[in-house]
């Protein structure tokens, strides 16, 4: 549905996206993880054509690119970007904003009532935006995306300023929405991405350094916190599996899926001597890969 081929962009001498290749389909939520200033927003800006890449192209439905205004219009009917709070109109109400987005992209306001109900905005949405808190504004921005109801959505920092309950609410909505959409979410709430993303891409030095796919077939690891000195001692006897990881100088991860039960039992018994025997068994999540690449 969406293809980025060889997308390159640099500011002055600094390469932000370095010949990026990427394909995504309807029905996916794709998390984008990377530290501040890496290029998440730049990637979204290129997808939306707010910024022209130095080379490479963005292709929608296998045929539309940003080669002329006609095609740009076709693409922009399919694509909405998460509004920034500073772009809200202080003197308009939340309902006014929702109607605006619904009319602009969807051509109908018939879903506005159910969106307000789903996002529990009924008690404030008729007031002017200037009276809203940060969290109320953020929920309105998300509601505007729901009102636009486009097949492609670029959500930058969607959870900013939301409390735990609202993060859970928006996460549930994302899962409900994804069936007929391709949704990108750039976020620093890493654990939250594990709850709804189908895959998470990690950007580093302009490239995708890792793609984490959440499937039931993901490799399982035995995970245990230890200090670097303990890890070094353990390494000396040369029995650690070759594919083990020691992430961020704190987390030992032993690949468990490939071991037989006897080997697994031996390692669990050995690990009981560390960290009061506190260990976890499961696949690696976004936090662990993030630490692997950026710690
Ligand atoms: N118009 C511009 N001119 C010059 N440099 C820019 C421009 N836009 C972005 N950059 C630089 O490109 C880099 C990537 O910025 P970008 O906003 O894409 O990062 P990000 O990963 O979204 O960061 P954050 O997590 O802070 O939102 C930064 O170093 C930024 O300063």
TrEMBL record:
Which branch of life, at top level?
Answer: Bacteria
Q: Where is the ABC transporter domain?
A: 2-230
* Alphabetically ordered keywords of this record: ATP-binding, Nucleotide-binding, Transport
Could you say which residues form the signal peptide? none
Query: Which Pfam families does this chain map to?
Result: ABC_tran
User: InterPro entries annotated for this entry?
Assistant: AAA+_ATPase, ABC_transporter-like_ATP-bd, ABC_transporter-like_CS, ABC_Transporter_VariousFunc, P-loop_NTPase
The GO terms describing molecular function are: ATP binding
Q: What is this protein called?
A: ABC transporter ATP-binding protein
The species is Sporosarcina quadrami
């Amino acid at each position: 549905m969406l293809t980025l081929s060889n997308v390159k962009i640099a500011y002055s001498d600094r390469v932000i996206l370095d010949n990026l290749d990427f394909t995504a389909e309807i029905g996916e939520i794709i998390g984008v993880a990377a530290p501040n200033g890496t290029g998440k927003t730049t990637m979204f800006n290129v997808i939306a054509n707010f910024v022209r890449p130095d080379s490479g192209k963005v292709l929608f439905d296998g045929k539309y690119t940003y080669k002329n205004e006609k095609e740009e219009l076709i693409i922009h009917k399919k694509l909405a970007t998460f509004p920034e709070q500073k772009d809200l109109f202080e003197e308009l109400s939340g309902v006014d904003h929702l109607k605006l987005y619904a009319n602009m992209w969807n051509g109908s306001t018939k879903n506005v009532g159910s969106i307000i109900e789903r996002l529990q905005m009924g008690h404030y949405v008729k007031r002017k935006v200037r009276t809203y808190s940060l969290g109320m504004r953020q929920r309105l921005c998300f509601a505007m995306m729901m009102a636009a109801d486009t097949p492609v959505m670029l959500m930058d920092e969607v959870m900013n300023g939301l409390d735990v309950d609202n993060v859970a609410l928006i996460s549930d909505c994302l899962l409900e929405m994804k069936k007929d959409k391709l949704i990108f979410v750039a976020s620093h709430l890493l654990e939250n991405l594990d709850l709804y993303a189908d895959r998470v891409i990690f950007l580093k030095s302009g490239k995708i350094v890792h793609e984490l796919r959440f499937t039931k077939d993901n490799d399982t690891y035995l995970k245990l916190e230890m200090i670097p000195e303990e890890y070094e001692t353990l390494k000396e006897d040369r029995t650690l599996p070759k594919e083990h990881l020691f992430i961020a100088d704190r987390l030992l991860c032993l690949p468990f899926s490939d071991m037989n039960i006897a080997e697994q039992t031996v390692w669990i018994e050995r690990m009981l001597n560390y960290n009061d025997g506190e260990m976890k068994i499961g696949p690696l999540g976004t936090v662990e890969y993030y630490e692997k690449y950026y710690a």
